[in-house]
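Q: Can I see a sequence and its folded structure?
A: Here is a first one.
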Amino acid sequence: MSLLTLTTACQHDIINDPNAPKTDTTIIVTPPIGGGGTSPLVSDTVCFNTEILPLFSSYCGSAGCHDVTSHKEGVILTDYSRIMKGIKAKQPNNSEYFTIIGDDMPPKNSPQMTAANIASIKKWIEQGALNTKCTNVCDTTVFTYSGAIQTIISNNCGGCHGNKPGTANIYLGDYASTKAYITSNTTLFLNSINYKATTASKNMPQSSKMVDCKIIQIEKWIKNGYPQ
């Protein structure tokens, strides 16, 4: 969530697409609650705020890389408008900030996005690369590690804490390590994901607070003894 080492081999050209989505427009998506069931219906929409921004921020936009302060190579990847400078809506193969994933971004010695992460970004671009903000995105009755928590941690924290030893010696790349760290630092961890840390720099993920339902899933996982 905090630090990546960047190589400087690549240079990035800004894409100027007159047909690109407006970067000052946010589209609120609220999937309906399942008819007669206990779980929300699954929306086909890939949500920028909960699925795409965390990936770019964690794996590419951390301190020392493409955040506002470091802006290596003049690139910042911590908000929609700046990410869209390298994305062409509905054209993943012509979107530099997509095609470079797995090549020069993230650097080879840093944690890498999974195939599922890359597929989500591709689908988001194919759907129009919209600034979607979803408000109903997860089922809080599901809170096992394999069913929900592993994906939440990987997507939001993996860029810094997915490879050993992890930034600040915090490794969250597997069940045992994640459980051990949170067990020893429960209050600190919960304050961080709830954006109640004593200093703003300790709030995680640094791009923005996770949506409430994902935090609830993590809290239930901890409260119920870290079910696998």
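Q: Show me another, different protein.
A: A second, unrelated one:
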Amino acid sequence: MANDLNKVLLIARLTRDPDYKNINGTSLVNFGVANNRTYVANGEKKEETHYFDCEAWGKLADIIRQYATKGKQVMIEGRLKYDSWDTPDGKKASRIKVFVENLQLLGSPSGGSGGRESSGGYPDQKYDSPSYPSNSGGDSGSQFGEYESQASSDDEPF
């Protein structure tokens, strides 16, 4: 019998600056991303934009808070997480978000699409993201360091 797999890999741009919270001494950021899909249907070029809500915890949340801003292109690796709650008027509400386990900033630190930056850029370090709150039972690593620029003007979601 095969095991289930809950894995998401996205390259997208932040739609807003990360919203930071400190919950019982643990950092949390929530942010949104958007990505485009371009395709041809009936000989006509079409484009779709998809929006995703994301959350990250711990050291990874601190890094995202410090370096990620609206419009920045990122690569996200994570899993889907189902949230449900009761609204103030007593109705049930739910949504699916991306629980970010790894995030890498793409493009140059100044926002352009140039090559590597040697100073004033992103930290060349690896950070481990805690598995909190996770039901998978294992720690997952987070990669945040040197990068190769992959941005192009054709990849803009806005």
